[in-house]
Amino acid sequence: VMENVSVDTLFTLSGLNFTLEQRITLFFLTLLWYIMILLGNIAIIVAIIVDKNLQEPMYIFLCNLCFNALYGTAGFYPKFLLDLLTSHVISYAGCMLQGFVIHSSVCGDFSILALMAYDRYVAICRPLVYQSVMTKQRISIFVLFSWLLPLYCMFMNTATLLGSRLCGSHINRIYCVNWMITSITCSPPKANSAVSYFNVLFYFGHFVFIFWSYLYLIRTAISSKEKWGKFMQTCLPHLISLITFTTTVLLDLLYMRFGSLDLSQDLNNFMAMEFLLIPPAMNPFIYGFKLTKIRNKFLNLVYIKRKDVKE
């Protein structure tokens, strides 16, 4: 059935065929998980903004990574929590917005992780020029582009879908993504395919750059105990974060493009949600425990509170 698209067009989403008791249980578990994501990322952001000792390039990039986690999860969790209590439908405008937010957040993560890799490369491999390379002005430009580029790339991706005639209204996913909207258009726009492939290649380039940076860093760090210690202290959290995020996104992409319909609903949902579940919750703990300055900041706060209680 061909449909003229309007703002009032409704899509039905899949993946929530649960009983009322299961929905309520899932609602409270999801709410607790989302609160943990919010508290963890906000704690890191506040610690970096408040403490002048943490206003170094590495921590500024980390602060933006946490902001991006809040931005991306805001595109999924509030709507998902609402769906658990009401009907699992979404308007055309809401679907396009959700796809844009989730996609741009994923791309934003790659941009910020690339900046972190470059920062560690300069700090460990070219320490004598670090201060002259990572100036405040340059950091500001880097951060600005790490937000503008993903937003622009995903805006172009979303814009090329607008107005396409639809031959269906059911999205076989727990939330909206552009690929699923493309799959129900009567004739997928060529411009959208071109932009999608460009975006994939562009961000694959980010991944190659990050991978090369860490290979070079490891090779350089092995030659010196001091450099190896610095690598383990500051780069290990980035590596764990990168591996976790890339694995979850890659699995989701592979499943979305080549996935089997024989998989259970629960596994289907997990594959779709894992990059919105694991990295946003893990990153604050990885960086909070491993990066000395952030860990010390939180330990000092706990110590001061205990001292105040005793007095």
Automatic annotation (TrEMBL):
GO terms for cellular component: plasma membrane. One of its GO terms (molecular function) is G protein-coupled receptor activity. Its main location: membrane. This is Olfactory receptor. It holds the Pfam family 7tm_4. The chain crosses the membrane at residues 24-50, 57-77, 89-118, 139-159, 197-218, 239-258, 270-289. It is a multi-pass membrane protein. PROSITE patterns: G_PROTEIN_RECEP_F1_1, G_PROTEIN_RECEP_F1_2. It comes from Seriola lalandi dorsalis. InterPro entries: GPCR1_Superfamily_Member (IPR052921), GPCR_Rhodpsn (IPR000276), GPCR_Rhodpsn_7TM (IPR017452), Olfact_rcpt (IPR000725). It is found in: Cell membrane. The lineage of its organism: Eukaryota, Metazoa, Chordata, Craniata, Vertebrata. Belongs to the G-protein coupled receptor 1 family. It comes from the Eukaryota. Residues 40-287 form the G-protein coupled receptors family 1 profile domain. Keywords: Cell membrane, Disulfide bond, G-protein coupled receptor, Glycoprotein, Membrane, Olfaction, Receptor, Sensory transduction, Transducer, Transmembrane, Transmembrane helix.
